[in-house]
Specification:
Helix content: 10-25%
Number of strands: 9
Length: about 170
């Protein structure tokens, strides 16, 4: 088994929780916040009834190679939290927890992803490249979400994307 990695980041928006969570509850928005070079395409007919156990199929292209990805919503706790887990895709493990937390003046959106690269231990050699790509993807997502939900609003705070071998506390 290869290294287990943890990606964390957050975005604070000057918007109420009840205005933020529905954006993430709409699976069609995932394509709107994904960098265009990934050629994200949802294969599951929209709208998806977001709930625990929901399955979403899509395709992404990495270095021009199309890859199918199937996600299961394993936890669904609106308006505060949901977790999607990759069932099929490019990672040996991918568990993405999304949390929306009401804070003074708005909502903080926390992302925590636990992942492992495929083909261990050789796959770990690609870790620096994958980490750079994930930092770019998640930064792009944060900027896109801020532009869509709080265009030009003061009080937007984008935290850096941190990837480490240690789980956050």
């Amino acid at each position: 088994m290869g290294s287990t990695w943890h990606l964390t980041t957050s975005l604070t928006l000057p918007r109420a929780l009840d205005a933020v969570f529905p954006f993430f509850a709409d699976a069609s928005n995932l394509g709107r916040i994904t960098p265009p070079e990934l050629r994200f395409a949802t294969r599951t007919p929209m709208p998806v009834a977001m709930q625990q156990g929901a399955l979403i199929d899509y395709t992404i292209s990495v270095f021009g190679i199309p890859m199918p990805w199937r996600t299961r919503i394993s936890v669904w706790e609106p308006p505060h939290r949901f977790v999607d887990e990759q069932l099929k895709g490019p990672y040996a493990l991918w568990v993405h927890e999304h949390r929306c937390v009401a804070v003074t003046g708005g909502t903080r959106i926390d992302d925590h992803v636990t992942f492992r690269l495929p083909f261990a231990p050789l796959g770990d050699l690609a870790a620096p490249i994958v980490h750079r790509m994930l930092r770019r993807i998640f930064t792009h997502r944060q900027v896109a979400v801020a532009r869509m939900l709080a265009p030009g609003a003061p009080g937007v705070v984008i935290a850096p994307v941190v990837i480490s071998r240690h789980a956050p506390r």
